Amino acid sequence: MPEQPPYLRIADELRRRIAEHVWEPGDRLPSRAQIGQECGVGENVVRRAQELLISQGVLEGRAGSGTYVAEPRHRVRVVRSSAREQPNGSPFRADMKAVGRQGDWESRTDAKVPAPDDIAARLGIAEGELCVRTTYEFLADGRPIQLSTSWEPYDLTAGTLVVLPEGGPHAGAGVVNRMAAIGVTVSHAVEQPEPRQATAEEASLLGIQKAALVTHIRRTYYSDQGRPVETADIVVPAAHCEIVYEIPINR
């Protein structure tokens, strides 16, 4: 078995000290030089370990002050399940209500946006074909906890009452219900989650450290004819949210 990289070993040591209450939430950590001397590593190794723990929400860095043990946070549960599509209301609002929070979102829609190459491939259309793009900031008690950018083929909804996801009589109804309103049956969705570091823009919008750990979910809805009708990139901060998948069992 390959030897664990030094910075991961130091990260484990820092976690252990926090778990054993050597340092309490709000405590300022010793200098990197001091930690490095105690652990027999260089300051750059300590820096990488601290950056990892900051990205995971265990530590927090304060400009000009140092590195501190982060205050514990109650993570918001974000449920992913096709069974949660509702004829009325929002699954997100229902999730937030279940944990005693007020769920809401802000959005911006741009119609007739040329599809970039990766989005075109996911939607099964040619690069540059027109799409309706909607960006979302999902809020819990007014605080952003999830970002999403949604793309729908313009030719699918053009001239209908659902062409704008957040406009008209079906505003905010969700992809499944909006597509049903124009006679398109959504049969299933495919989601591909993967961890990565937040971009500077994402960190700013979510109020997290730059390069903090997030879960990036690529989701695509398909019609019963096999056509992709919507694809989205969903970004959830790992330190603030836990993602749970519900798997319906058909008997």
TrEMBL record:
Keywords: DNA-binding, Transcription, Transcription regulation. Residues 4-72 form the HTH gntR-type domain. SMART domains: HTH_GNTR (SM00345), UTRA (SM00866). Residues 94-111 have a biased composition (Basic and acidic residues). Gene3D superfamilies: Chorismate lyase-like, Winged helix-like DNA-binding domain superfamily/Winged helix DNA-binding domain. Residues 81-111 are annotated as: Disordered. PROSITE patterns: HTH_GNTR (PS50949). This is GntR family transcriptional regulator. It comes from Streptomyces lanatus.
